[in-house]
Every structure is written in C-alpha cells, then in structure tokens.
Amino acid sequence: MFVGGHAVAAHGYDRLTFDLDLLIRAQQSMAWTNLVTAMGFVLLHEKPGFLQFADSKYERPPLDLMRVNDETFDKMYAESKDFVTVPGAKFVSLKHLIVLKCHVIKNGHSGRELRDADDLINLMAIHRLDVNLPEWQTLILKYGTRNWMKDYKKSQNSIGVDLELPDWSGMADHSALRPEVVLNLSDAYFPLFKEAARRHQDRPKCEVELVLE
What we know:
Blueprint: E1 2-3, H1 4-10, E2 20-25, H2 29-38, E3 41-47, E4 50-55, E5 63-68, H3 70-78, E6 81-82, E7 90-91, H4 94-107, H5 113-126, H6 134-144, H7 148-151, H8 179-199
Parallel strand pairs: 2-5
Antiparallel strand pairs: 1-2, 3-4, 4-5, 6-7
C-alpha cells in the first residue's frame, strides 16, 4: 500500500514528493528485498521498522518500505483505496494516513516534523475534519503524543483504530536525484493526481493565523 507523499496527494493535497513509501508485511521483507535489488536498487538502511533503498544510478525515486505485523497490515488493507491512476495499486485510507502522520511526528523523524505537520493540517482542512470532535481528538492524542495513556482511557478511542506501528525515527533522508529526473517527476505529478485534486478543489479558507516564534 502507498503511504507518505503519494497517499497524501491521492487524498487531495497535491504536493510534490520524490520518493516512494510503501507499507509492507514485516514477514515479507526478504521477498521485497530480493525483488527491489533485482531491479537495481541498493539497500541503504535497515531497522526493525523499515528498509530504505536507492537506485544505484539515481534515475528512479528512492524506495522506503515500512514494516508492520500481519494484523496491522490486514486492518489497513481492509480500508485502503484503489489508486485509479495506477491500476492494481492501493493507498491507505484517510483515517489511517492521519494515524501514520501523527505517529511519524511523535517519533520525531529528524528534519521531517514540519513537513508531516503541514500534510496533517492540509489533509484535515481539505476534508473538513472537525478536530474538536472527540473521536479525532482521541486519535491524534493517542498516536501523536507519547504520554497518551497517562491522560486518556482506552474506552475513549471511539474511532476504532488500534494499530501496532514500529519506530520509524531512524529513517534518513535520501541523497539527491539527478536534476533531469526531478524535472521529469515534477511533470508527471499533475496528470497522476489531478483527479484527486479536482475532488477537493473547493477548499475552505483558513480562519486561524498561526505564528512561529
């Protein structure tokens, strides 16, 4: 299943991304490694929660594989959506994408906090999610803060999300792609995600001013 920037774009926030983030079953890690290395990718980093690959010629986007157990994968796959512009592909549901974004922010992935927070804010604005509703507050607090269990009871998790997500804080940013590859990818994004962007083009105006000091 697609997660990360491609899933964000598929859900209507049409921003650029220059890597591929896929959610896989942890038990299939070896099969995935054999597949992508046979395609010319090189393993850069490996941790219990993820595998990171790069194209040896920097001609294709880097590939991040996020590993989860079977129970978590099955729950997310059951609610995943069809990638209309990529036949046979799936991307995670909006609810699960928000969970993933909260999880990454909580883990403090170096250099990514602002980018993931921007994704989270725009996804909520585009889909008009009311963060004052208890179910969304509970979800964000559960997966976005470390001390959730100290302040909230499990019974309040009315949105029905119970996932076991690994620590992805050690993931590193990839080395740069060749300039011509970046340009080609940029040209490809608009037709790939224009349908998703059209569905959410009537976006509400932001009525809150945020100031960073």
